[in-house]
Write a structure and sequence with these properties.
Chain B: Residues 171-210 form the K Homology domain. The complex is a heterodimer of chains A (245) and B (295). Chain A has 4 helices and 9 strands; from the N terminus they run ββββαβαββαββα. With 245 residues, chain A is of the alpha+beta class. In chain A, α1 (94-110) packs across α2 (134-149). Chain A starts with 24 loop residues before the first strand and ends with a helix. Chain B is built from 6 helices and 17 strands. In chain B, the strands form 4 sheets. Chain B has a 5-stranded mixed β-barrel with strand order 8-9-10-12-11. Chain B has a 4-stranded mixed sheet with strand order 1-6-7-3, with no helix packed on it. In chain B, β4 and β5 form a beta hairpin. Chain B is flat, with a radius of gyration of 22 Å. The N and C termini of chain B lie far apart (46 Å). The chains are: A alpha+beta (245), B alpha+beta (295). At the A-B interface, β3, α2 and α4 of A face loops of B.
Chain lengths: 245, 295
């Protein structure tokens, strides 16, 4: 491993976490009045904002509409100031389009689209600050926004990354760990049924290690789902108290 | 011009204490929660069956009606029902029909045969009428209408077969959540403060100056372009800010609540109504008066 020691001999990572420890998660639902649903999510230093519009009539070309279910339209973008080096295009480049496509696939697995024939659901996510795990922050933020919009889903979708160093699986990678030369795996999970919505890994990894890596990512997702759950319940309580009379 | 600026502040924590007894009475669920594994119940909106278990698919409150279990989400788009009064915007003119955006999950339809055309109630719709549809309503126009029927996919069919419905002229549109509009016998109100309001069931509220006597010949397609006096415009802007204040505090909207809020806002300038502390004050007074009136 070049230079960086991802896991110290004492078992601590670069930012002082243990191998299976998640970063601090903070989230809030209903941040915008104009959108049907919105949410803000922080996973450590990664910050994401998601808004949901819909279900509404298919705009643009009518041919895109499906007669038996809703179309999900995702757009992923990164703020120009989100990375250390200023970005030129906030969205529309190859990486962003790929991410948009992955988000679309993830949410098609979770949203009960067959309830809304001929309509469209728009999900817009923006990374405000990027410190690794952009995909998972987006998925988690978008899940909260969908819940806020009252769109029916099978379950929450929780996503988390996991990496591999010194024979140990590391949960919820930060930017330094992601770019440090190790492997990174992103996993989106429907925690209650334990079904996988999306799994992605770009680097090479020995087949024997894959199971431990998947196991670690799944554990991390389940941890995240507990946090999301408490955020949703808290929001539910607050709103139902307000609208009681 | 003085500009009011303020720094970000910590959001006020809504106290959950003291209301716990009430919150306990409600059965709140989140997506994926199993409501019951008893097979004797019927599946309603907001639920799905997952291996014989009745599971919630939205976050909200469980409603039971005998054997039927539904989950009502806190916030959704408008679900139309026959007889609702709605305010909507024309998005498209097609053959024999207009498409209307009504905050519903699909655009609503207004058929040429379900509008009152000038010159007699029972006139046959000719091919000529089809060609001049854009003269009556064109893209971007606002209308008030009533829901005539609901199609199987959830789209609404509207009608304007009454003189109270039709194209809207000068006024202000306010959009709120559909669940905040209280269902009442009438949704058209001439408020004593000097303006009129249409409380659309779809959460679109229309404020307009109280009209004089109406010209019956025009069939609701006549729009007055007369200058609205400043005093009327002030009343309308004050009402708009009051509606936004009530919606922010999730107070049900109907003629009495709007009027009380208007009266309690008279102590303040119109532009100050939307400041958070003024808003709190006004809404609190309104709530108190509504409670006093009830019992």
């Amino acid at each position: 491993m070049a230079g960086l020691e991802l896991l110290s001999d004492q078992g601590y990572r670069l930012d002082g976490r243990k191998a299976s420890e998640l970063r601090k998660v903070q989230a809030r639902m209903g941040v915008f009045g104009q959108a049907d649903g919105s949410a803000y999510m922080e996973q450590g230093n990664t910050k994401a904002l998601a808004v949901v519009y819909g279900p509404h009539e298919v705009r643009g070309s009518r041919s895109k509409s499906l007669h038996d279910r809703a179309v999900i339209n995702c757009q992923y973008s990164m703020a120009t100031f989100s990375t250390a080096e200023r970005k030129r295009r906030p969205h529309g480049d190859r990486k962003s389009s790929e991410m948009s496509l992955h988000l679309k696939q993830t949410f098609e697995a979770a949203v009960l689209t067959q309830l809304y024939p001929r309509s469209q659901i728009d999900i817009y996510v923006k990374i405000l600050q990027s410190d690794g795990g952009n995909y998972s922050a987006c998925v988690n933020a978008a899940t909260l926004a969908l819940v806020d919009a009252g769109i029916p889903m099978r379950d929450y979708v929780c996503a988390c990354t996991a990496g591999f160093a010194e024979g140990t699986a590391l949960a919820d990678l930060c930017h330094a760990e992601e770019t440090g030369g190790g492997t990174a795996l992103s996993l989106a999970l429907l925690p209650r049924s334990q079904s996988i919505a999306l799994v992605q890994m770009d680097a090479r990894l020995h087949q024997d290690h894959l199971d431990t890596l998947m196991e670690a990512a799944m554990e991390a997702c389940k941890g995240l789902s507990k946090v999301l759950d408490s955020v949703v319940r808290q929001h539910l309580q607050e709103v139902s108290v307000l609208s009681r009379d | 011009m003085a500009v009011d600026m303020r720094l970000p502040t910590v959001r006020k924590q809504i106290s959950l204490a003291g209301s716990n007894s009430n919150a306990d009475g409600k059965h709140l669920v989140v997506p994926g929660d199993v409501i019951t594994s008893d097979t004797g119940f019927m599946r309603g909106h907001g639920t799905y069956m997952d291996d014989e278990k009745l599971t919630a698919s939205v976050a909200g409150e469980v409603e039971r009606v005998n054997k039927l279990i539904c989950v009502r989400p806190l916030k959704t788009r408008y679900n139309g029902e026959v007889g609702d009064v709605i305010v909507g915007r024309i998005t498209e003119v097609q053959q024999k029909r207009w498409k209307v955006e009504t905050n519903s999950r699909l655009d609503s339809v207004l058929l040429l045969s379900s509008v009152n055309l000038p010159g007699g109630e029972l006139r046959r719709r000719s091919a000529e009428d089809e060609l001049t549809m854009r003269d009556y309503l064109q893209e971007g126009d606002l209308i008030s209408a009533e829901v005539q029927s609901v199609f199987s996919d959830g789209a609404l069919s509207l009608h304007t077969r009454s003189l109270k419905y039709g194209k809207l002229g000068q006024g202000v549109l306010v959009q709120v959540s559909p669940s905040l509009v209280k269902r009442q016998k009438t949704h058209f109100h001439n408020l004593p403060c000097g303006a009129s309001i249409i409380l659309g069931n779809n959460g679109f509220l229309w404020l307009y100056p109280t009209p004089g006597q109406q010209d019956e010949e025009e069939g609701g397609y006549y729009t007055s372009l007369e200058l609205v006096p400043l005093s009327d415009r002030e009343v309308i802007s004050r009402l708009r800010n009051c509606l936004l204040a009530l919606a922010a505090h999730k107070v049900l909207l109907y003629d009495t609540s709007v009027l009380y809020c208007y009266e309690s806002s008279l102590l303040y300038q119109i532009k100050d109504i939307l400041k958070p502390e003024t808003m709190d004050e006004i809404v609190m007074v309104t709530r108190q008066r509504l409670l006093d009136q009830e019992g």
